[in-house]
Amino acid sequence: MQFPKSYKCLTKNVFRKDGFKIIPIRFQDRMDVMKWRNEQIHHLRQDKPISVAVQNSYFENVVAKLFDEDKPSQILFSFLENDICIGYGGLVHINWSDKNAEISFIMNTELEDIFFSKYWSIYLEVLEKIGFDELNYHKLFVYAFDLRPHLFIMLEENKYFLDARLKDHCYFRGSFKDVVIYSKICEK
């Protein structure tokens, strides 16, 4: 199978900042993505670990088809530093009519302790160029379980505002947790 390399919905498919790049998700990164998702399952909307077979099927039967859609439900990217994949994410739960999308991002688990704020901030800056400038969305938002307060501090530092708090919205390890939504509205 020849995995696609560019999204039909984008006029540009490589976005750079210094030594960092966001490019359409690569098939070769799927096992790293699976590993990171399984390691970080505690803060994801994923109820069980992903197997190799499930990951391969998802990339071949779901992700590959997104590239040819005019208005895909998600646009996924590999996040590279000096051409090494250090994370992945994208715009998900896209609402093309209302011009908004949820931001998704996971980085290499081993890098989180040292580079969490730096990589998230760079990723947000580049992804905003895609969402606001390339796709002309009005609003981007992050939907997160209230488990990582350092995520919210970093979002506020990047000019995202607390848009909503959904009380007791998810059941996590024996108790209900809030879901927090941080948003940014295009200033154009």
Can you walk through the features of this model?
With 188 residues, the protein is of the alpha+beta class. It has a domain at 15-142: Gcn5-related N-acetyltransferase (GNAT) (Aminopeptidase, 3-Layer(aba) Sandwich). The protein has helices at residues 30-39, 52-66, 112-134, 149-157; strands spanning 15-17, 20-24, 75-81, 84-95, 100-107, 139-145, 161-172, 175-185. β3 (75-81) and β4 form a beta hairpin. α3 (112-134) packs across α4. It is globular.
Classification by helices and strands:
alpha+beta
Largest sheet: 8 strands, mixed
The CATH superfamily name of the domain at 15-142 is Gcn5-related N-acetyltransferase (GNAT)
CATH topology annotation of the domain at 15-142? Aminopeptidase
- Supply Rg: 16 Å
Q: Portion of residues in helices?
A: 25-40%
At the first level of CATH, what is the class of the domain at 15-142? Alpha Beta
Per the principal axes of the C-alpha atoms, what is the gross shape?
globular
Q: Would you list the SSEs in sequence order as H and E?
A: EEHHEEEHEHEE
Distance between the termini: 41 Å
Give the low-pLDDT segments.
Answer: none
Strand order of the largest sheet: 1-2-3-4-5-6-8-7
Counted by DSSP, the helix tally is 4
| Residue share in β-strands | 25-35%
Secondary-structure arrangement, i.e. CATH architecture of the domain at 15-142: 3-Layer(aba) Sandwich
E-strand count = 8
Mean pLDDT: 90
Quick synopsis:
30% of the residues lie in helices and 35% in strands. The chain has 188 residues and is an alpha+beta fold.
